[in-house]
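This section describes the prediction task in plain terms. A model, or a person checking by hand, is given the sequence of a single protein chain and must write out its three-dimensional structure as a string of tokens. No templates, partner chains or ligands are provided. The sample shown here is typical of the held-out split.
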Amino acid sequence: MQIKECIILAGGLGTRLRSEVPDLPKCLAPVAGKPFLHWVIRHLLSQKVETFIFSVGYMHEKTEAFIAKEYPGLPVKFSAETTPLGTGGAIKFAFRQCSGSDVMAVNGDTLFETDHDRLMYYHLENNAACTLALKPVTDSDRYGSVETDERGNIISFREKTFIRAGLINGGVYLLNRQRFEDAGLPEIFSFEKDYLEKSVGAQKMIGVRDDGYFIDIGIPADLEKANIEIKQKFNASAE
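The expected answer:
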């Protein structure tokens, strides 16, 4: 079964990047000569995603204009917040635009080159409510870590602290739509804090390790890192 629908969370304020990109939403920050969202869409297309649901809010007109200009033939829907809903509320609201039973959600400010077929395989094999792509990292204090058992069941989410080696939440989720909607979540909530962390043990959550390329441009240092790495990785001058 193929992942056909993907929600891209593209409504973040980008407060920590405001000094670098004061007049753009975070997902449109220039990286290797292109808005960062270009690289996210590029990967999703390579994984055969068919329908793109953009969850937009802050400066949504600029995101919508970019999509209309650069991807005129892309099957696109927009889920526009009138007030900030949080990451979880944004996904819940965007589900109104979805039709499939299992839908992917990704962060518009993160590129994680995951294998969608593999993710879907484990999601269905385990009858999971939510499957997360987990990125192995070493010597990191930038992210919270995720602990799983030997079968991939998520045991806990840990706060940000220095880890010598471990797995982090890569911001790529595969959700069973019905079970997510049946969870009784409010209109405004954090996906990470109010759904993932509070659902451990209550809902079947699976973590799938993926060694694909990962970059999150949430802070200026990583935006600079993304410019260097993506230019090298994709030979961006030829794009």
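For orientation: The longest helix spans residues 220-234.
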